Every structure is written in structure tokens, then in C-alpha cells.
């Protein structure tokens, strides 16, 4: 009985995770898989805590755990896929003088990074 319950729990977890990733990709027009790679390439974890990213333990920027459930991002922006991707790509245009530097993230990479962040539930 315990084995069946554990197996059922694991299956439910995997189904939920798959659904979250599929939904994140659809709502951002990005790819959470490419986003994971972009996060590593741009070393986002040097400033942020990012779930699922090895070594992403930065304490300079905000902890990005659960960013998909937040109402506000970047201090005063509504949390929606377009706003998040725009902030990732051009943080100084969205919040001039803010701590997040321009990293040269393309619009497509920003959608991918947003997809990764939204996929983390």
C-alpha cells in the first residue's frame, strides 16, 4: 500500500510539473529548457536564488522562488509574461537606475528565462 501511494504521488508530481512547464512555455512564447541554459549562461544565480539552478544562491537581487505567484515584479510592474520578459531583456528601460544591470539578453532569451521562472512551482 505504501509503495502504491508513493508511486501515485510521484506520478502526480511529474504530471503537475509537466503541466506547469507546458503552460509556462505557452504563456511566454518561450522555452523553459532554453531558459534554464540562458540563466546559466548569463550567471543569473550570482545575484539571485533560483530554484533548480545549481549554485544559484546569490543574495544581491531578489530570491526568484515562486516568482510566478507574485502580483508585482521589479518593484512596481504587474507580473505578466510580457512585463517579466521586458524587464529581463531591458531592466534599465523598465526601471532606470535600478540595481538590475543590462546583460544583453535578447527578447527571445528573456521569454525563455521567463518561461523557466514561471515553470517553477
Which keywords apply here?
121 residues; mainly alpha; Immunoglobulin-like; two-stranded antiparallel ribbon; 2 strands; 52% helix; 3% strand
Describe the structure.
- It is a single chain.
- The chain has 121 residues and is mostly helical.
- It has a single domain, classed as Immunoglobulin-like (Sandwich), CATH 2.60.40.420.
- Helices cover 52% and strands 3% of the residues.
- The chain contains five helices and two strands; from the N terminus they run ααββααα.
- It has helices at residues 2-28, 32-41, 81-89, 91-94, 107-119, and strands at 72-73, 77-78.
- Strands 1-2 form a two-stranded antiparallel sheet.
- α1 runs antiparallel to α5 (107-119) and α2 (32-41) crosses α5.
- The radius of gyration is 15 Å and the shape is globular.
- The mean pLDDT is 90.
Quick summary:
This protein is 52% helix and 3% strand. It has 121 residues and is mainly α. The chain has one domain: Immunoglobulin-like (Sandwich), CATH 2.60.40.420.
Amino acid at each position: 500500500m505504501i509503495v502504491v501511494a508513493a508511486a501515485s504521488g510521484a506520478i502526480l508530481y511529474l504530471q503537475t510539473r509537466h503541466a506547469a512547464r507546458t503552460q509556462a512555455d505557452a504563456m511566454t512564447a518561450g522555452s523553459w529548457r532554453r531558459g534554464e541554459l540562458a540563466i546559466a549562461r548569463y550567471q543569473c544565480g550570482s545575484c539571485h536564488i533560483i530554484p533548480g539552478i545549481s549554485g544559484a544562491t546569490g543574495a544581491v537581487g531578489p530570491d526568484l522562488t515562486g516568482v510566478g505567484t507574485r502580483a508585482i515584479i521589479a518593484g512596481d510592474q504587474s507580473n505578466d509574461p510580457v512585463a517579466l520578459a521586458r524587464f529581463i531583456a531591458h531592466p534599465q528601460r523598465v526601471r532606470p537606475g535600478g540595481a538590475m544591470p543590462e546583460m544583453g539578453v535578447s527578447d527571445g532569451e528573456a521569454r525563455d528565462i521567463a518561461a523557466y521562472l514561471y515553470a517553477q512551482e
